[in-house]
Batch of 2 targets.
Target 1
Amino acid sequence: MLPRGRPRALGAAALLLLLLLVGFFLFDGRLRGSASLDGELTWDHNRSACVPLRSLQPKCELLHVAIVCAGYNSSRDVITLVKSMLFYRKNPLHLHLVTDDVARNILETLFHTWMVPAVRVSFYNANEFQSQVSWIPNTHYSGLYGLLKLVLPDALPPDLVRVIVLDTDITFASDIAELWAFFAHFSDKQMIGLVENQSNWYLGNLWKNHRPWPALGRGFNTGVILLRLDRLREAGWEQMWKATAQRLLLTLSTTSLADQDIFNAVIKEHPGLVLLLPCIWNVQLSDHTLAEHCYSEASDLKVIHWNSPRKLRVKNKHVQFFRNLYLTFLEYDGNLLRTELFGCPSQPPPRAEQLQQALAQLDEEDACFEFQQQWLTVHRVHLTFLPLDPLPSEAHDVTLVAQLSMDRLQMLEALCSHWPGPMSLALYLTDAETQQFLRFVEASTVLSARSNVAYHVVYREGPLYPVNHLRNVALAQALTSYVFLSDIDFLPAYSLYGYLRASIKQLDLGSQRKVALVVPAFESLHYRLSFPTSKAELLALLDAGSLYTFRYDVWPRGHAPTDYARWREARAPYRVQWAADYEPYVVVPRECPRYDSRFVGFGWNKVAHIVELDAQEYEFLVLPEAFTIHMPHAPSLDISRFRSSPAYRDCLQALKDEFHQDLSRRYGAAALKYLTALQQSRSSA
Amino acid sequence: MLPRGRPRALGAAALLLLLLLVGFFLFDGRLRGSASLDGELTWDHNRSACVPLRSLQPKCELLHVAIVCAGYNSSRDVITLVKSMLFYRKNPLHLHLVTDDVARNILETLFHTWMVPAVRVSFYNANEFQSQVSWIPNTHYSGLYGLLKLVLPDALPPDLVRVIVLDTDITFASDIAELWAFFAHFSDKQMIGLVENQSNWYLGNLWKNHRPWPALGRGFNTGVILLRLDRLREAGWEQMWKATAQRLLLTLSTTSLADQDIFNAVIKEHPGLVLLLPCIWNVQLSDHTLAEHCYSEASDLKVIHWNSPRKLRVKNKHVQFFRNLYLTFLEYDGNLLRTELFGCPSQPPPRAEQLQQALAQLDEEDACFEFQQQWLTVHRVHLTFLPLDPLPSEAHDVTLVAQLSMDRLQMLEALCSHWPGPMSLALYLTDAETQQFLRFVEASTVLSARSNVAYHVVYREGPLYPVNHLRNVALAQALTSYVFLSDIDFLPAYSLYGYLRASIKQLDLGSQRKVALVVPAFESLHYRLSFPTSKAELLALLDAGSLYTFRYDVWPRGHAPTDYARWREARAPYRVQWAADYEPYVVVPRECPRYDSRFVGFGWNKVAHIVELDAQEYEFLVLPEAFTIHMPHAPSLDISRFRSSPAYRDCLQALKDEFHQDLSRRYGAAALKYLTALQQSRSSA
């Protein structure tokens, strides 16, 4: 049957070519015509639905996108932009991110752990280019960073020819390749593609004595820009915009709309530089927007620009549509974007191949498959999800380190009232839960007031709680010399933060010394406890049976070596020896060993860490005035799912065995005592 | 400037027309040619990306979709299908759902509360048509309901001409209008549009003596069907398929693939009926699928068909891509699909207009705006989210009614062990949380074993917990004459279920009698309570200070009228009088008054209901052996967000005032005592 099909296919190909050519000329003609602005939005939106343009592009072409991003909040915004872009894209992408140190730390970790196939990310240090724009007085809310778009031809690699530049408050509703296709329509002289500004700002009639920067008609909006970098460099772009800006700043004291004022002023002088893009590629939801004239139906919309300071609360006839689109990506599970772009072969992200191999080697039928898979899972990590403003750290400062999921969020306020010092917390959340978390913090005066609590989001994936990985994420982000390794359901003594700093100073512990200060742990079975304000009060409550030593009834081995009897009387720190299953809460130098992240779910996760400390010859010193109290709570969802399962306990045993094999490998004969202890506990169990 | 633009626009329109005509002929030719199968998948997938087809359709054309859906699990599946369809659609839709009683109850409520603009839903009773297919022996997992697709030309309204028929295990990756556009390519004789079957099943060589039903080559898959109903009716479709089926069943004892076998057998005899659709419109992820030959890149994929019993666990090279697409819609917030189809004017859903007006009349600056908005919110409701198999109810049976959100899920197992009887529970969840809930139930042997617990999902929307709306949803679904109105953090006495049934019988309470049986409430401050197994044990714990009467310290008024002192001694039920702020846990006839859903968030929600019972002259009878105990837990996220706010308390006061005004209106002078009580409590506060 094939021979019969072949000629038909050839005929079809010829006709397709004709079709594309017709489409091409049609578009090209219009584009040239519509570059002259006349105050009306002249792009015919009914045309925009035509896709054939895309076919002009080489399949699998690498598309370049540049974004300037600085600070904590913009780093959150840019992720929603990136999610919307990845959702619709079919091409490999190269993101060029011009960032400050804060955004770089966040985004570098995010992309490294996100591991999206066919996405490359390069970082550029905003500080290096600031001096080129910092002389320009600017009152726009985007600040100095808005202006940095002007220096992109200089900042980006010299061999980079085309780039799409985006503001962080952009949401895609279509495939970015359709936007990229407009590069094919630049005439020989054009080098900047822009959408008209959808407000009357540049008409200069908004109020009496309103004097905007010069622009062609309504001017252009710079939230979405297509740049032919090669031509800009050749045309002397840097001299061009600097000369224009300097001249205009003689009479206009400041830019109101940052880079956009300068782009418009240059274009007013050189209108031939610009290709006008259809308005649907930058639908501007500014206050008093005229965007409604741009589209007539939902399918017209390609790119939404939230360029009002009111953001989602902006007034617009179709704001519900826009808001729903935005929320779709805000809450979208980013893990689902880790999808292979099949059809376009691409270099896998770093680590991805080994990971795939390791996962492929697992045996799905193995009873502990879920444990092994969870251990290998690379979780997306968003460091410092909320703004952080840590005080300069003293030498003896201590950060409280803990991890939690949604069901412990309500512990945060109490914890903040007990611990005024810095905290580094890892939160295990879905993308949607991060938004609930945000609203929770915003609604809490206690939490909003704190600027020394770092929240690191580790995105949920897989059935088991990756407790030790979470601890490691939080631990790695502590900025002080010492860390207090706690759990979220413990409230420390009100005085503990000050007492720990004083003790570290008094004991003259340099951060090099291998010491673990033990904070004795107690528990309350009452959920309305009047919290003891001193050791004396605590002892009284203990005697009255209102407090207990931690897990005294179900797991006394966990804290027995702390020697509660001695602690009652102690006036000075005293040294204790490791024993099997010891898992005290400790204060250690930040450089302490990491937790073993193979322990996922519940059980033995802290025990293994204490073994590691002992193996590395950390000295355990119990502090006589320190204490922390476990608050009662219902069992977590994660724990109740598994604790009844015998298979679960078998897998935990297997993890312990592997851990001990590794110990022997690393510490040799010195690790023998741990193995002996394990075997004794097993034979006594 | 306009005159200059006009001729250009006319020229463009002419060219566009040419373009479309070229496209039309091109497609039409290929489609006719490719209807003859040769064992190869002959549709050229590179062509499918061409959108102009869509432009052939009248803008805003109403598209008709028919789905056969029966039972609890298919009702869940169909919602994911509908979400994917709504996500991409730009046209108004009319869904024709052929359902059993279970699916109808679920889906009618769902769509009624979903209120998606430009979606109409009609229901057809599957029972009415079963007799037409029940004579056909069938071994396929879709059962009898699969076969019902054969009777659609008869079952759907006689004036309905075109319909797309979908299986419930379909996921859209594109706009359904693109599929609908293929109706334009039916020749005069064609009446069924189908995709080739992407397995070798019908080739009959899968195993020795494998004898499939007759088909053209690989045959067709009926997961996606375009039907020209008018032509099928005219051609005598019913006689046609019945004759074919009867004849073949003489030699083939049963259908293996339900309706699909019969469709294929008819088509084998009448190949001219069929238009072959491109394979991307039904990418079949069956076991041993050949679908890979169909697509070469992600953008090719239009419709995914999960037609393996393994569903998401099916083996396929690109299964991760398909799974991520499916999960996208499984977890997608359905509220975001309530978006106006602007550009296509359509009748708003029932109630939507009044609702819009009511919402528009609210004052955003009002301190209680959030309360009013929450009250007006229509939450999507998914009744009986999991299969239910209630025993036939006796006259004295009692259903436990309660509501919860994610943070109380871990109470369910304990509750099940305390209450063996039927339960009706409302769960306040996001779409993504419903999946966590599903996994939680699946992982729990206790919960999986229960078939008399109905879970009703009310989808989250808005900042305040709609406690009374949730109670009403659960209450309305109780199937027994009596209901025990409880809260999720209470565990009833182990004997309570039996004791309540016995008491109702003994007291000779018809369901007409206005009586509220009071179950005295206690509280434990210990989270590891050894639960009392008798009243005597409870009293001992009370005397020992291990248990307390409920809220004895913070809110004694709530339960004081129960008269705990009298209860200690009571051997027989005793009557008590209402007093201000009384909020006992009661057993009442199912027809009792509903809760006042204006009370959202926390506070006074049960109190108002008890006032309503008293106003309607319900008699309060305390049962001498009944008790229930509140288990300690951390405060919920919802409560801690608001309880600290004075504005919150002011709004609650305003709600109380409104409630009392309504009471006076409805009960006249009889309601005076409630107002007096309110004023007294206010002056004493």
Note: Residues 2-34 of chain A form the longest helix (33 residues).
Target 2
Amino acid sequence: MLNKANLQFIGAEAEFSQALTVLFGAPFDGTTSFRPGARFAPQAIRLDSNGLETYSPYQDGDLTDFPIMDSGDLELPFGNPRGALDLIKERALNILNQQKRPFLIGGEHLVTLGALEACAQIYPELRLIHFDAHTDLRQDYLGETLSHATVIRRAHDLLGDQRIYQFGIRSGERAEFVWSSQGHTFLIPYNFAGLEIILEDLKDYPIYFTVDLDVLDPSVFPGTGTPEPGGVSFDQLRQAVTKVCAQSQVVGCDVTELSPQYDPSGVSTAVAAKIIREMLIALHKNKK
Amino acid sequence: MLNKANLQFIGAEAEFSQALTVLFGAPFDGTTSFRPGARFAPQAIRLDSNGLETYSPYQDGDLTDFPIMDSGDLELPFGNPRGALDLIKERALNILNQQKRPFLIGGEHLVTLGALEACAQIYPELRLIHFDAHTDLRQDYLGETLSHATVIRRAHDLLGDQRIYQFGIRSGERAEFVWSSQGHTFLIPYNFAGLEIILEDLKDYPIYFTVDLDVLDPSVFPGTGTPEPGGVSFDQLRQAVTKVCAQSQVVGCDVTELSPQYDPSGVSTAVAAKIIREMLIALHKNKK
Amino acid sequence: MLNKANLQFIGAEAEFSQALTVLFGAPFDGTTSFRPGARFAPQAIRLDSNGLETYSPYQDGDLTDFPIMDSGDLELPFGNPRGALDLIKERALNILNQQKRPFLIGGEHLVTLGALEACAQIYPELRLIHFDAHTDLRQDYLGETLSHATVIRRAHDLLGDQRIYQFGIRSGERAEFVWSSQGHTFLIPYNFAGLEIILEDLKDYPIYFTVDLDVLDPSVFPGTGTPEPGGVSFDQLRQAVTKVCAQSQVVGCDVTELSPQYDPSGVSTAVAAKIIREMLIALHKNKK
Amino acid sequence: MLNKANLQFIGAEAEFSQALTVLFGAPFDGTTSFRPGARFAPQAIRLDSNGLETYSPYQDGDLTDFPIMDSGDLELPFGNPRGALDLIKERALNILNQQKRPFLIGGEHLVTLGALEACAQIYPELRLIHFDAHTDLRQDYLGETLSHATVIRRAHDLLGDQRIYQFGIRSGERAEFVWSSQGHTFLIPYNFAGLEIILEDLKDYPIYFTVDLDVLDPSVFPGTGTPEPGGVSFDQLRQAVTKVCAQSQVVGCDVTELSPQYDPSGVSTAVAAKIIREMLIALHKNKK
Amino acid sequence: MLNKANLQFIGAEAEFSQALTVLFGAPFDGTTSFRPGARFAPQAIRLDSNGLETYSPYQDGDLTDFPIMDSGDLELPFGNPRGALDLIKERALNILNQQKRPFLIGGEHLVTLGALEACAQIYPELRLIHFDAHTDLRQDYLGETLSHATVIRRAHDLLGDQRIYQFGIRSGERAEFVWSSQGHTFLIPYNFAGLEIILEDLKDYPIYFTVDLDVLDPSVFPGTGTPEPGGVSFDQLRQAVTKVCAQSQVVGCDVTELSPQYDPSGVSTAVAAKIIREMLIALHKNKK
Amino acid sequence: MLNKANLQFIGAEAEFSQALTVLFGAPFDGTTSFRPGARFAPQAIRLDSNGLETYSPYQDGDLTDFPIMDSGDLELPFGNPRGALDLIKERALNILNQQKRPFLIGGEHLVTLGALEACAQIYPELRLIHFDAHTDLRQDYLGETLSHATVIRRAHDLLGDQRIYQFGIRSGERAEFVWSSQGHTFLIPYNFAGLEIILEDLKDYPIYFTVDLDVLDPSVFPGTGTPEPGGVSFDQLRQAVTKVCAQSQVVGCDVTELSPQYDPSGVSTAVAAKIIREMLIALHKNKK
């Protein structure tokens, strides 16, 4: 008669067997060097998603029209990045093996690697679309190869040259920009210039789509570990994620790097929840 | 010889008998469902208005040039929305009956209804101009018909079809957008497109003008109960309120939904105070 | 295979059919006049209870030894106090009718009235033990009879003279202290003097036990709507609630008036969770 | 018909002509070296005094029984400490010359000097009772002789040896403690030991009483410029200020060094308001 | 073997003898009338500069390519503005006399005057470029002539008519705008219109360049004493400071009015650090 | 002529060659599971130590009387706890090998292990005195053996039975208390009962002394990762650390678990700095 307390992303109420997309949280920030706190993002997003409507006037779609499930958070060991990635990879493979799409909510950006490894194992032709303020292309950071600052370099280890498309980048070491320009990744600085052309080129490939929310300008998204002034606006990001999700074959995706405690207004969490809503609607609307 | 302590909106120093516009505060947020705190807005706005100049370079006008009075806050019963609205209506009628203009500072958006009822009683041809992020058109909310989420629907009960003009709307249930589109209200989503044309059409009607400040993007106005990313900029709102106040016959107006405690920087309160200054100057400048 | 996300008070994992005590949240603060926010307490307590051990060295007991269930939060209408109380009363009766003990987590103090009405209906000989900084004995507050400031007066309407025992009181109007002293309630100011004697006197009566956490000194519990300097220490309260729960027949109880957002350190929420843990262990340990 | 907005300390509603005690604020912190913000104290105390009862169960007295007036804040020039002190002295003399008692609300501790100068001019036999965490006995601070860190040394310039009684002191330079012990001031470290004996000795002298609220432990009063762990409890201070105000001839007094913005919980402001309430009641109750 | 703890602006590691530009901090806000705190800016900027890359993709330059030194903070007397200015002037002269460029980090805007006096002494043909939200042209403020609100008027006392170029101005008293328009300063309201033309005109003059960061919109820079909605974006300011530093002969400069404590997200501090980085790179790149 | 910016603990100004005690910071919180942030403690303590006097009236001693050096912070890899511990151990050995005493400022409690390993290598008869709210005796935490929750268990691996003295403990799993009681550690719950007797017993042994500041009650020390209500007061801790440092042979020590960002008042940081001051003075005063 009485139900147990539960908490999930608004509108993500499907049963696992019916779901096409399965949300899961990776509350991990064990390699964050500057300001930790991304671990608090998944629960904050779920709580504040209740201040959000399920309906999007932008797309005239409603979360409740689609079979989406929120499978809750992983319990991850701090101080052991590889162990954490293995647990993320395992959850993503569980979802992929049931012909469903994993949608990961970080956590710091390193968590992407676990889900990406799972997708690359299932889809050998995988391409990566990456929205971020930072290059994330270092070979190592203070001697560690698994770090929020190296995650796209590790993705390159896995996928190889010319399979990674980076947008919005406005911060990194000179050496990272140089390395990218030597044919290793496509890097569009500052904004989403050329996104539509690239989506057309990629339309036959399976896509992993990773959104580091610090691609946004800190005016609208102050709640993040390393705020970088000069980013894109909410509407620019909203339109760009909608295009990626609506126009390409996204087989896995994630949203990372919200650190809610740096934004006492709660706006950053609201932004994260609304971007996830728009992504979820675009992933399902007008799809067979 | 020594004066009692007092606190008022900067430059609103007229006596009641001389005043053309009379400010009053309605520190009420009793139906706010997500994040309360709009009750603190009137006092916060008065305090921080002292960091503001009385002069506007945008309009080359100065608050001290015009007869404006700040009549302080009502004391309103929490837990009794209708009782609160009756007190607001009573104060507004007192002001209207002296051929003055009531300028209400909320409080949550429901407070608008009390002042609107007073204006509609005096001006049967009243039209409503409504700036907001949210439709506010629900029939009821958790069974209650008096709510911040139903206030414009209640306004429609009072005014009828095609007398309400909504601008900047970017959030609501699908059913609310559908209901509006069935001829009940004019709804301009996202921005102020067409405002000048509508002002021209309305130039012979008495206008009630309600500004829910969450029409602003949360980057510049994080201090509100339900932040909705994707809103208008400060300059867009400043220009739009100036046009409404300068080019139409505003017989009553309000500014609502500042919740100062969600913005420890104080910027949201500064924004509210500056919008009120611009409205006040536009209401009086070049008017007979 | 994958479970839905859920959130409950730590260690409260029993099924309803097995449970002896059933927690439920009443996220309501619709009559709070000074600083709202108690609505956020139930979810905050659940989240932060995960930083707490289930084991109490004070009592050498562990939450996981006892059949306790967390049945989640009610959805309550803001702006309608009587409607909210009816829903609280209904939930409490559901629990009582299954021979279980309701344990309510507020919310503002008014929520107590709903659970008390349910207990009084089942147990006509009910007595009330009340820990608080405030008398809460006003006949009305701004004309409203249902208010956080009148809740114990309403309890007196229900229970009658000399059935209410108030401890820790240090704030109120003179008239409230006078009224109490006229034989209506037993009022022990400032602390828990005489608690053991009263518990001995009451040992054959069914007890409703309400804890307004602002009985604590604000140094250890700043996160509350109306902080009153000069309160009891954590250890004083911990010992007092343990005595009440261990030595009397508590048939219903509650913990109210945490407003977590006023305490960014999270200490107040940790205090609330730990007091609930100690109460729960004392309610079950060495009981038949 | 409609009153202007005003804000005053709760219960301080007398007209100037009737008042025995006149509150005034000195929102000045221009010499604060570590963390400014005491300028915000007077308005914060007035606002939050509305969450306080006018009745004190400790003394069974009510603010509304006594003729107390709040005459508002001075407007003081930052960057000119002597100019600010002159304005404070002028206001205090205005009050003293009408046979009333000035009650100053700071501001940083330097403001005391202005009111003390006024009282010493009227009462040549003046003694100073000083509650504080800090000695405040430096000859100068970074070359400046007018500073929050030198204020009691300046008081000594004015009053001379053995007329200053310092209580609760727990911080200072070694040289300050040595200088005090050479017969210049009576200094009781850490607490209020011997207060009653000293009050008996001083019962025939006019007293200026200055309370630097940082004498409190920062657990209960974190909102101050230089928090010093190891202070007195709220109840210790409450009892001590009550004794001074009830048992001696206080001709002028002040409460200083609240910096409300360092305490987002508002507890420090509530503490300040409650201490002022207790002082005001003790100053008037059972006095002819 | 072990180094002492030290803290400096990232990449500013040159020895004094090699340095071309020498940073120094003036942690002074003694005349700030509304909200103090700019004193905390220099240390906050140094600490958070460690979250910044030394490389700028905008200019393809790296701080570590250039000889820049951070010489730490001055110790300044609060309550004595002229004394503080003298210490600032002395430090700036020390730097100028070694044929180096002083780069001052405030502090409130008044600190500019000390460095400007030093530069004007060395360079009689000095021009001032001023970015700000506020005119800062008052003759006095509450009777004081040295104030954050008068600093550019004092600069005019020093430099005379038509040597001051103000950009981005959007707040002031009517009289200040009028005074400026009488031929005393060039004042470009709201933005940087015409900056390139003016830089061309000024290319043969020594320039002092002062940036009051509140020229930025408070959405991206909430951490300041007097936030003025309606300012420029980060990218607009970034481009404008780059032009001034790259295209003119800046002999001294400053960045003022960050008050980090009003922005708990830390974004404002990140903005300040990044603007300083861009200025430093533009000052040195492609220069002889 | 001009010095580089530097930042050190107040009064810790000796050169390395002269120093008897060498402070160093370990800004690491990579295994913190609940609320990270202890990484910010060393810099926050240094900054806020400037609000502290160097003189202690409690001990009549002054930091500047003794040869103490602050050697700054280590740069530690997040995500690699063993790597971080090795760097801490190396720094401690460097200091010990010069016949100096390492004084470590954490960071999370795990950092203790690195310094303890160094001391145990030099002093085979080492004993450990441990002040904490938590047992820290788990064998592993989520599978990881190196964790803030296991650090004293790891110390036991190193030192063996009956060499560890735990005081103030009030939280842990039942199994940890049982394990301790089986002869593995001496565990005094809640307070410092018996401390003097134990110090007498240990007076001929080299001591490592570790202070987890969460032994304090959260009322005075809210700024920590896992606040545990019911702890000791500041004066109790001050007296206890003074006794340990004055009456035993402390060859290494640390202070850990300040997380300054959870305490916006800054009181927790002030407490940490003052405890370090008292320890430093007690370590050197009246010592040969």
Note: Residues 21-132+207-284 of chain B form a domain with the Arginase; Chain A fold (CATH 3.40.800.10).
